[in-house]
Specification:
single chain; ATPase_NBD; Nucleotidyltransferase, domain 5
Amino acid sequence: MVVGFDYGSSNCAMGVMRAGAVELIPLENSKCYLPSTLYALHNSLISEYVAKGIQESAQSQFRAQRNGILKSAQFARSDLGLMPQETGVFVGQEAIEEYISMPEEGYFVKSPKSFFGAIGLKPEQIAFFEDIATAMILVLKTRAEQHLGKALTQTVIGRPVNFQAVGGEDSNRQAISILTTAAKRAGFTDVEFLYEPLAAGIDFESDLQQDQKVLVVDIGGGTSDCSFVQMGPSYRDCEDRSAHFLAHTGKRIGGNDLDIALAFHKLMPVCGLGGQFKSGLPLPKQAFWQACKINDIQLQSDFYSGAFGRELNTMLRDVCEPEKLKRLQVIQANKMTHQFVRQAELAKIALSDDSAHQVDLSFIENELVQNLDLVQLTESVESSLQQVVALAEQAISDAGTKPDAIYLTGGSAQSPLLKSALQAKLGDTPMLNGDNFGSVTAGLTKWAERIYR
């Protein structure tokens, strides 16, 4: 059976065609969108989960390649007291809940796709990301097949124009290789990829009554992509659409970066950002940035290192407001960076509708809160929003013509701040909102049906 698969930075979704219409598949209880998160009681259990879940014909080779980490998994299971039927691996909302209950234990990753194109990864790191992706796809594919009562064998997976801000095509090839390997290990026989903004455009095009030049702006959790596409009745039935795509631009900046920016600029001051040493020198900003940058492996590793823990102890003796810096120490000691940035995300969402929001930071210190308003949100994310606007302007320039419409999609596309920033630069071009979460999945599903049937 054919499936469209949005392995997104924020959420995952799958769709199939039924009676000529796209049907999204429930992946977590009755919900069709599953958060792109994974939590394991020990990182070796992820590889063990894959070893047990992949097809028997591939198990021998995989076990030989992962021999060392699979031995570690045996010791981890014994230390954790896991029963044979317990995997110790969780995905989606369940992963978030397990992490929040035990943040100081285990391995938690949010938006793993954001890391797949990282430059400088060692072979063992690439292998581990393959296992993370495979484990997640195994879970999603199994749940979808149980719901449908049929095997899923062919898929089209969405991809950003660029997985990383740096690295170019080398980063893209690495990320595509990781996802292809993972999808095939999980049991898909045929795997194709389609740019996510193009997928969103295909869904939008289905309802067009006349030809238009459309700028599709897809603001996901980890990346922002723009595609300038000729759409409409004259184009949608063509087998080869390459000539209709006039321009693509993309960058690794998305909703997660807005959350990080808000957490750093407006929440980290309660943990000492902006403070001083007794000598009058300012506290270094890098430590606070490392804590917030949850989509950067190296910075998170630096923040959680023993060396930085010792540095924090030294700093505490010399700062003017040690009670604030102690909060950063709590975050570091208890691995709370994801929880911290999550509060910024919730504030960002709330401020889309309200002018003020109280952020709950009581997981760091009893009754600790921080009040935020729309002005503070705007100040924090202005730089990120202007980068998205620049992508749209570049796509229009590359296309050499003006769009008849701008189609916004993606989890962050509903932001009033984004719309205002685009309107300020692009004028009165009609701006339309699609299904912020489902349009990419719908387009992938329609494209999969077309190329595999």
